[in-house]
Design a protein that fits this description.
heterodimer, A: 63 residues, B: 756 residues, mainly alpha, two-stranded antiparallel sheet, disordered N terminus
Chain lengths: 63, 756
């Protein structure tokens, strides 16, 4: 049973990273290792910034 | 000459307090070249199974062939291609060096440049390259029988498609994630670069238009489809607002909510279409739907990304992975028997009803995505290279990702040929031939004289009823046929015949979802390219935030593809039949452009001995597309040549005829004259631009060969401070090195990429 749960959890985590659900966590990791002067963006600010950057830098999807 | 001289500097720059960022070359070499009895046995088994599968498909002429052989032939060939051919490309042509940092490391910003776990990035890249294309082309190509398409999809991907994706991705990664357009300009100069840019823009318009045409054909006169696909818009808007204001960043959560709502929309669509008011309200003709998509396309492209595009993307990724896994499982479990012949009666002719033109070259342009797709070059340069963690992973992600797409194309082919051939032709021939009713369609199909085909009107009516549609006659474009095939297979796997209507609309829904996302994103990218080009003359246009400029350019782009779409929908000759070859030609010409750029880069790197790896697929793509274009431009057969058709109809009009061929009115005849002229002119422009790019690349290549190499535009090498294995399964040496890295104190390996 345990292995099934672990497998499912792994799959959910994989799908999560695939869709970019962990983008904020990665941003924070990067922020901590590089050490900036100001504070890091909050989660809300980060996602706003991410979406707004896509507005000015569109990426194609394939056919 | 190029990167070789940087090697020693790179070695000196490595951090001595860290374990090495790459497996020692000699150790890796020894590991790769060591053949244990187990490995030898494994590869013999794979080769034998693949050989048996190909034998069953190509040489055994029984009544039927089991679908499982398609799976084995594909998978075994992919494995061999991946293990041996892509290894040759890696070892002799690209020579990746894990001691060099990737852009995701040396440009890391936590946003666009982020080192991403290779398995996650594989899925990410796959989701970005695979859309509706591999699901549509193989279905249309099935007119010629299953074998030509199968061979082209499987062999083409190994020698051409995956090679292109891999090379473009690697070269873009070495250049900090530069786009194909930028690389073309750098390597080919101003003329070649500009031609490549204009060609890309035009090709984008054609591709968006024809994808939209596929959706229109799938939704026309289908209240169920219109309702459920229409519901994706409010669902996406809700998801967008949820992510922006209610729970930012909860991507998985909102995707699951969205998925449940989508399923509800599909089931609800059946109920709504069953009511009198629903059937009346959502029963739209094709022209109305086309206008709907044009208006939608404009609004979607000027709305902020977070509101519509991003949530649609999440839904689409979710569906993509789910559907593909499910379809693969279903085909393996159900193993349908295929009755379609290896070569059909149309394989030797050029007047097939589904698409016109001879097998060579038109089969090779009809199936683009899945075998060789130029559009991938735009994805493989840009987003993915900015996320790659180590150089050696490009083989797994670039080459491997494309093999995966090819497998999707094979599954689509299997689904399409698992249905009766009579139904296939009744669904895919233009209205002008089938007449639109079950009786006339059955009569027409039976008159074709196809072996073992004897369809009755009852079967056509019953099939339509099973999938919850009013009619399945002349639903060209590939998507409905695939949906019937998928429903046919899936109901044997889950749910039984009662579920067929659900599976049919499930398939229509996901294809429409992929396509509408591509339409929205494609319009945005095209608008951006246009803004950038106009910005060279009027600088104000370069400001992305300047609304009037953005709206104007969006309107121009939507008008351009909208015009082609309306032309296709109202075309008396059948739309898909005449336009789909143009789509394939455009896509393959883009591939030729991408490969031409890769050829020039390879020559400048000084590896002349292995230049054929790029030259062979380039030559093939160039010959196929230029021949196809010439057929379309110069062929005297009206069914094939745009101008021949134009002349035939012009002459008929001049003679005062009021109907000609499939055009029954003077207005329809005038439409044919107009459409064929536009299509012909587009073909001329495409092929001219591509020849300019190819010639520019050949000149750059010859110059580089004469000089023994050329200027290298790679970013300067930066020593890497991280390590990760190259492929799906780490080798022994990779595991050992990984253990060394994992043994470091946490603060020393803060550079570690997040694993899921």
């Amino acid at each position: 049973m345990n292995t099934v749960v672990r497998g499912l959890r792994g799959f959910a985590a994989y799908m999560g990273s695939l869709m970019g659900a962990d983008a904020y966590r990665k941003y924070l990791e990067h922020f901590e290792t590089t050490g900036h002067s100001g504070p890091a963006m909050t989660e809300r600010e980060f996602w706003r910034d991410r979406m707004d950057r896509q507005d000015s830098n569109p990426q194609g999807r394939c056919c | 000459m190029g990167k070789i001289s940087d090697q020693s500097k790179l070695a000196e720059g490595l951090d001595p307090t860290l374990p090495p960022p790459a497996v020692e070359d000699s150790v890796r070499e020894a590991e790769e070249r060591k053949w244990t009895p187990f490995k030898i046995g494994l590869w013999i088994a794979i080769s034998l199974l693949g050989a048996v599968a190909w034998f069953m498909l190509a040489l055994v002429r029984g009544e039927t062939v089991n679908a499982i052989w398609f799976v084995f032939a594909a998978v075994c060939t992919y494995l061999i291609g991946y293990r041996f051919y892509s290894k040759v490309i890696e070892r002799y042509l690209l020579k990746p060096d894990d001691r060099r940092a990737t852009p995701a490391e040396y440009k890391a910003d936590g946003k666009d440049y982020v080192r991403t776990d290779r398995n996650v990035l594989f899925g990410h890249h796959f989701a970005a390259i695979a859309g509706a294309g591999p699901l549509v082309g193989p279905v249309i190509a099935a007119q010629m029988g299953y074998l030509p398409g199968t061979i082209w999809i499987i062999i083409g991907v190994v020698l051409a498609g995956a090679v292109q994706d891999y090379l473009v991705m690697f070269f873009s990664m070495r250049r900090g994630g530069r786009s194909l357009g930028q690389m073309a300009r750098e390597e080919l100069g101003v003329i070649g670069g500009t031609a490549a840019l204009v060609a890309t823009l035009l090709i984008m318009i054609i591709i968006v238009a024809i994808l939209a045409l596929v959706v229109v054909n799938a939704l026309g006169e289908s209240p169920w489809g219109v309702f459920s696909v229409g519901m994706t818009i409010p669902i996406a808007l809700f998801m967008g607002v949820y992510l922006r204001f209610i729970r930012p960043g909860k991507v998985m959560e909102v995707s699951i909510i969205g998925f449940v709502l989508l399923m509800a929309a599909i089931i609800g669509g059946g109920a709504v279409a069953g009511t009198e008011w629903g059937a009346a309200f959502f029963h739209l003709d094709k022209v109305t739907i086309a206008w709907g998509i044009i208006i939608y396309g404009f609004i979607a492209a000027i709305l902020p990304v977070w509101l519509l595009l991003a949530p649609r993307d999440y839904l689409s990724t979710f569906m993509k992975i789910g559907v593909i896994v499910m379809l693969a499982l279903a085909i393996i479990v159900v193993r349908p028997e295929i009755t379609v012949p290896a070569f059909s009666e149309f394989a030797g002719r050029e007047n097939g009803p589904v698409f016109s033109g001879a097998l060579f070259p038109f089969l090779f342009v009809t199936i683009a995505c899945g075998a060789l797709s130029g559009f991938h070059a735009l994805i493989s340069s840009g987003t993915t290279p900015k996320l790659i963690e180590k150089e050696r992973q490009t083989r797994f992600i670039g080459y491997g990702g494309m093999l995966m797409e090819s497998f999707v194309a094979i599954m689509a082919l299997v689904a399409a040929i698992s249905i009766d051939r009579g139904i296939y032709f009744a669904m895919n021939a233009p209205l002008a031939l089938t007449g639109g009713t079950v009786e006339s369609a059955a009569q027409w199909v039976n008159s074709l004289g196809l072996a073992n085909v004897n369809i009755t009107p009852d079967v056509l009516a019953q099939t339509a009823k099973d999938v919850g549609e009013e009619s399945i006659i002349s639903r060209s474009g590939g998507a409905p046929t695939l949906a019937v095939g998928l429903a046919h297979i899936m109901q044997q796997f889950i749910g039984g015949p009662g579920m067929m209507a659900f599976w049919y609309h499930f398939a229509i829904m996901f294809e429409a979802l992929f396509i509408l996302t591509a339409v929205d994103a494609g319009t945005r990218v095209a608008r951006f390219m246009l803004q950038d080009s106009i910005g060279n003359f009027i600088p104000k246009f370069k400001e992305a935030s300047w609304r009037p400029g953005a709206w104007l350019c969006t309107a121009i782009m939507v008008a351009a593809w909208g015009a082609v779409l309306i032309m296709g929908v109202t075309d008396p000759l059948g739309g898909i039949n005449t336009l789909f070859p143009l789509f394939g030609i455009a896509n393959q010409l883009l591939a030729a452009i991408a490969l031409a750029v890769c050829l020039a880069i390879t020559a400048k790197r000084g590896v002349f001995k292995w230049l054929w790896i790029v030259a062979v697929p380039l030559a093939f793509a160039a010959v196929v597309t230029i021949t196809a274009s010439f057929h379309k431009i110069f062929s005297p057969v009206p069914a094939v040549g745009y101008f021949a058709n134009n002349q035939a109809f012009s002459k008929a009009l001049a003679d005062g005829k009021t109907e000609f061929g499939t055009a029954k009115t003077v207005a329809a005849m005038e439409a044919v004259v107009r459409n064929t002229m536009i299509q012909g002119v587009l073909s001329v422009i495409f092929v001219t631009l591509s020849i300019i790019v190819i010639v520019a690349a050949l000149l750059a290549t010859i110059k580089a060969i004469r000089a023994g190499g050329g200027q290298d535009h790679e970013d300067p090498p930066v020593p890497s401070k991280v390590y990760a294995p190259a492929g799906l399964f780490p080798t022994t040496a990779e595991k050992k090195l990984l253990a060394e890295w994992n043994a470091l104190p946490a603060e020393k390996r803060t550079q570690k990429a997040s694993h899921h």
